[in-house]
Amino acid sequence: MINTFILAAHTVVAIALIALVLVQQGKGADAGAAFGSGASATMFGSRGAASFLSRTTAVLATVFFLTSLTLGYFATQGSAPKSVVERIQVEKPVEVPKSGGPADVPQLPKK
């Protein structure tokens, strides 16, 4: 149940992080603002949104990494064997015949 909740939160955070990164303006757009480009008509002003968007991106990235680590931890926890040796021990043991050798070899009489 907790695994499903973390997976859903991980998906929502990933989509939000992608959308937030796509909304941000690149560093190369500042050069266009110097020559009278439309940077003054932005929603947050020319530099007002940089700190808000960068902080929100950092928070979402941190949550994304934490959910990734948590999902990785839950994936390793389980009833599956952890090594090859444990897998061999879990499988059905090989049955050893109770007679001294193969059935087609005749037994020599004892003296």
TrEMBL record:
Q: Does the keyword Cell membrane apply?
A: yes
User: What membrane topology does this protein have?
Assistant: Multi-pass membrane protein
Q: Which Pfam families match?
A: SecG
What would you give as a GO molecular function for this chain, any one?
protein-transporting ATPase activity
Its subcellular locations are: Cell membrane
Cellular component terms per the entry's GO annotation: plasma membrane
UniProt main location, coarse: membrane
The protein's matches in InterPro entries, at most eight in alphabetical order, are given as: SecG
Note whether Ligase occurs among the keywords: no
Task performed by this protein: Involved in protein export. Participates in an early event of protein translocation.
Q: What is this protein called?
A: Protein-export membrane protein SecG
Q: What is the lineage of its organism?
A: Bacteria, Pseudomonadati, Pseudomonadota, Gammaproteobacteria, Candidatus Competibacteraceae
Q: Which gene encodes it?
A: secG
